[in-house]
Amino acid sequence: MSMICMEAQASEHGTLIADKGSEMINRMHTSLLERNGILKVEYMEPFVQAACSVLERVSGGRAAPGPLGLMGATYPTACVNIAARVSGRLQGDVVYSMSSQTAQKLAELLTGMEAHGFGRLTGTGLVRLGDMIALETGNLLGTSGISCEIGRPTVFRGLNVEFSSASPALAVRVDTDAGQVDINLAVNNG
Question: Domain limits at 86?
Answer without folding.
Answer: 9-189
